[in-house]
Amino acid sequence: MSNKEVKAALKSARDAIRNKEYKEALKHCKAVLKQEKNNYNAWVFIGLAAAELEQPDQAKGAYKKAIELEPNQLLAWQGLANLYEKPNQTDVKGDLADVYQKLLELYESGDKQKWCDVCNKLVELYHQEKKYLEVAETWQKLIRMKQEEGAEKTELHQLWKKMIQLLEDSTRNQDNKTGQLLLTAFEHALHSADTIPGEDHQSLYEDFIQCLSKFPHEVTRLERACQDMMALYPTMSYPLEVLCLHFVQSGTLSEEALHCFSRLLEMDANNGPGIIGFGIKCLKENKYKEAVKSLTEGLQKTNQCPAAWYYLAEAQMKIHEHRNAVLSCNQALEALGTPEGPNFQWKNLALQLKAETLIKIADADAAEEAIEALEQIVDGSSDPVVLALRGQAYLKKGLMDQASKISQELLLSHPHLAEAHALEGFIHYSQKNYEQAEKSFLNAIERKAGIAEYHQYLGLTYWFMGDETKKDKGKALTQFLKAAKLDSYLGSAFCYLGNYYRDIAGDKSRARGCYKKAFELDETDEESGTAAVNLSVELGDMDTALSILNEVTEKARPGTAKWAWLHRGLYYLRTGQPSQAVADLQAALRADPKDSNCWESLGEAYLNRGSYSTALKSFRKASELNPGLVYSIYRAAALEQILGKYENAIATYQEILKKTENYVPALKGLGECYLMLARSALDNYFDRK
């Protein structure tokens, strides 16, 4: 076949393809290839015809052969791209990307429009595959090309915005290079906006700041962006909010941070991040109650701030609201999720604070939960303070051997650690080894003098020491005073001071003040509440006693605060108000239905009210619960006597006299009953009875 015939055959093949006679085209091409097996156009036409005849493998082979022959010719590459773009072609996206790359190379010096079209297709392909770095780099090439062609500022602005849209999902799984390209796109888009300041520009700035806040290492850039936006939009609170939350999360409380908190609250007094910032400021200034109030309020408005939950827990811990502090730690841990990077530090802090708080609750279940929290701390096994906490948790759970083992190991490895000596002191104190406990607590205080708990336990150690030389309670007083001074919210220290002033110094007035303070700090402290009421009564200050009791009973849930109901009931009984006494004593019995003394007092209240049958039942219940209550048995007999049940009364009196021969009220009652029976017999003419 001559050259002329080859050209004619190729022309026939082209015409056949144009007329959709693909089999005919294949015949002409095969004829050409018999003559010229390396004919580029023949292979391209075979690729085209085979693709249309749904023979993708043959088409691909033909195009690849053509490319092999002429790697820098466009036709075969275009054909291969069209083939791979067909919907029935699967698993070829990687190959298609390579084809697009080659087409970009071939179009670069020629048809710019086609280059842009292929570039768009390549970006779309990378985006489907979530190859964000390739998306960013390819789109940047497109923007560079447009810049070289002198594109308008508005067109470039739209291209940068499009790049932001393409990369917005990439922040979830961000590599640093893609992140930098996204941030660069934001900066270019901001600078190329038509109207500055303007609504679109403002919205774009917010998106930029939100994006920056997801990059922990871009702190300086974030701060600068917030400052720049505040300068452009001084009435907008958003950049200030982000900056405030950034300062909260970073754990720094610089002058700049305080200025931001104040400025935000001036702008909007109800702003969540601003209120949180103010709460943290209060915490650092030791204004713990104000801190709890502000942080609680701020978190109701901005709840996804793990650091703020941690600070709230810390403030609650300082005022000994231990159960609330545990809940706040749980909220912090929930908000952190599975943290990485700097957040892992917050998780460790929250877990450690949770464990400390649970140890203060001091029951076996809380101790078990504390151990679980400590086990989750990353590298906790190498942290001596965490190990000391674990020792305390074991001690609270009653696992003395494990606690002692940790204590011994810590004293060997960290002899200068206050917590190690304190743990040893707690162990000795729990075993009543007071002399050894004294040495341990003194060692702990020498290393850390500002811990109220160490002084309190040293005071208790002196209080319970049995040695003659240690009987001077003045040493205990000194330590309790130090504990109360170091921690003005430590209710138990004020309770121990009350014990000292009442039992040792005999100063009832000062003791009452201490008990009252202890009870104000911890309303669950029945010992202090009871002592404050009793001393108020002894001092003739019934108003104070009643105000304490009224406050407790008003807040009490049904079945709680037995001591307060009982004390107020007895007060009403003494002051001739039997109906009120009955109501309060019934409330006390709801809290503890097996208290025989309470039943006895209730019987007395019913008796004073004139409810004899109910009084009788109450006295009988008291004597059932405690057969040793002679007074209740006597009162039951006396009521039977009043109700005219003389024979029952006689039997009860005789029962009392079997146990207590000379119990005068029973003897008197027995005589009266016999007399009444005799009178009854005479009235009925039973003379001989």
TrEMBL record:
<keyword id="KW-0802">TPR repeat</keyword>
<feature type="coiled-coil region">
    <location>
        <begin position="3"/>
        <end position="39"/>
    </location>
</feature>
<dbReference type="InterPro" id="IPR039226">
    <property type="entry name" value="Ski3/TTC37"/>
</dbReference>
<dbReference type="InterPro" id="IPR011990">
    <property type="entry name" value="TPR-like_helical_dom_sf"/>
</dbReference>
<dbReference type="GO" id="GO:0055087">
    <property type="term" value="C:Ski complex"/>
</dbReference>
<dbReference type="Pfam" id="PF14559">
    <property type="entry name" value="TPR_19"/>
</dbReference>
<keyword id="KW-0175">Coiled coil</keyword>
<feature type="repeat" description="TPR">
    <location>
        <begin position="562"/>
        <end position="595"/>
    </location>
</feature>
<keyword id="KW-0677">Repeat</keyword>
<dbReference type="InterPro" id="IPR019734">
    <property type="entry name" value="TPR_rpt"/>
</dbReference>
<dbReference type="Pfam" id="PF13432">
    <property type="entry name" value="TPR_16"/>
</dbReference>
<protein>
    <submittedName>
        <fullName>TTC37 protein</fullName>
    </submittedName>
</protein>
<dbReference type="GO" id="GO:0006401">
    <property type="term" value="P:RNA catabolic process"/>
</dbReference>
<feature type="repeat" description="TPR">
    <location>
        <begin position="40"/>
        <end position="73"/>
    </location>
</feature>
<feature type="repeat" description="TPR">
    <location>
        <begin position="596"/>
        <end position="629"/>
    </location>
</feature>
